[in-house]
Design brief:
five-stranded antiparallel β-sheet, globular, alpha+beta, Phosphatase 2c, domain 1
Length: 388
């Protein structure tokens, strides 16, 4: 039987908060139960409106660790990822509701935080990440990012688990431990020191930090704390809070540190290849498809419809009523919206949807037609009995 993972976590206050006389807003935790090992880290949002972010961060890591230890299989084997993401977010929001009462707060925004977690059961792995920070996978080949930092319109903004539509930004990963030596999670206070966004390169020091776990939880946390205080927090007077979580798999191949690269070329991004350009490219195809479906619905011959020409006018995309104007509903993750609507495959037979996702009112569902036929037959029989 393989040894259970070694779990390590530390959360340390940065000089920025020390100088301001404010508490650490990071949180981290580890938990082993039911054959499941979980490590979580969270970074409470900074700013005057996030007054109780540190409580939100603590609540989020404790909630997710407990939930995954108790229901790992449910989340791992659920193929409808949207339901898994929604339930995770709803669980956090539901636990945070008690904090609103306890601290007399006016909304979840006060508790805003990022969230990163990894859970392992046997050789199965569940990982999740919303916001900035970094999750790395250490293997015998070195260290590489499993999930990347996610920022908003600029580097100083990000996404929080407290968003009403947080499930849309929560990255959810199901994988295995194959060729994995350890997972290392970190908030942005550490991430900024070990990760180069231009090349998506993780510095080898992360693999060395993971190797501290080979000394056991207590010794590893002691040395990890000393290392972060000296080389990360001590690097300046305005350093942020720092959290690191390690899930270490004993008896797995250790990286060859002598062969690990110290740098990586910058990633060459094509800034013209955007979702907007994909939208423009798809406009004529979607219009053409809608014409075919409309003709078929009306009982006409769709063979006379000419193939759409490529899009030329950029203003066509995103306009009201345009074929590509996809309507996106923000699914609220409140406790009253735990159960998602059934997928399209379970809709009533005979019901037709157009590309915007709205029902075609001209088509009568099969069940309604049968119901009307049944009512007609019952009425006819009743009248016949009266005549007799």
């Amino acid at each position: 039987m393989a040894d259970l993972p070694v779990l390590v976590n530390v959360s340390l206050i940065g000089n920025k908060h020390v100088n301001r006389g404010t508490p650490c807003e990071d949180a981290s935790c580890t938990l082993s139960r039911n054959g499941v090992s979980v490590v979580c880290v969270a970074d409470g949002a900074g700013g005057s409106k996030y007054t109780h972010a540190r409580f939100g961060a603590k609540c989020a890591v404790d909630c997710i660790a407990s939930l995954l230890c108790d229901h790992f299989d449910a989340f791992y084997f659920e193929n409808r990822e949207s339901i898994s993401r929604s339930l995770l977010v709803t669980a956090v929001h539901s636990h945070m509701a008690d904090l609103l009462v306890e601290h007399q707060l006016d909304g979840l925004e006060r508790l805003s935080c990022t969230l990163l977690f990894v859970a392992v059961k046997g050789d199965l792995v569940l990982a999740g990440h919303i916001g900035d920070g970094l999750i790395c996978r250490v293997s015998s080949h070195g260290v590489a990012p499993l999930t990347l930092p996610s920022n908003g319109e600029n580097a100083s903004s990000t996404y929080f688990i407290t968003f009403p539509n947080a499930q849309e930004y929560l990255r959810f990963i199901r994988t295995t431990t194959d060729e994995t030596h350890a997972f290392v999670l970190m908030t942005d206070g550490v991430e900024e020191m070990v990760y180069d966004a231009d090349s998506q390169f993780v510095r080898p020091v992360v693999a060395r930090l993971a190797e501290l776990a080979a000394k056991g939880k207590e010794k590893a946390e002691e040395e990890l704390t000393a290392t972060i205080k000296e080389f990360v927090i001590g690097a300046g007077q305005n350093t942020d809070d720092c959290s690191v979580g390690i899930l270490y798999l004993p008896q797995t191949p250790v990286p060859d540190f002598s062969s690990m690269k110290e740098s990586k070329p910058k990633f060459r991004r094509n800034h013209e290849d955007t979702i907007r350009s994909v939208q423009m490219e798809m406009v004529p195809m979607v219009k053409h498809a809608q014409e075919i479906l409309s003709a078929l619905t009306a009982g006409k011959n769709a063979g006379n419809i000419t193939k759409a020409a490529p899009a030329e006018d950029e203003s066509a995309a995103g306009e009201p009523g345009n074929a590509y104007n996809v309507k996106k509903e923000a699914t609220k993750s409140s406790s009253s919206n735990i159960i998602e609507k059934e997928d399209d495959s379970k809709k009533d037979e005979g019901e037709i949807l157009d590309f915007s996702g709205e029902k075609n009112s001209k088509t009568v569902p099969l069940w309604a037609f049968l119901l009307m036929c049944g009512a007609f037959i019952v009425t006819a029989v009743a009248l016949l009995l009266k005549l007799i």
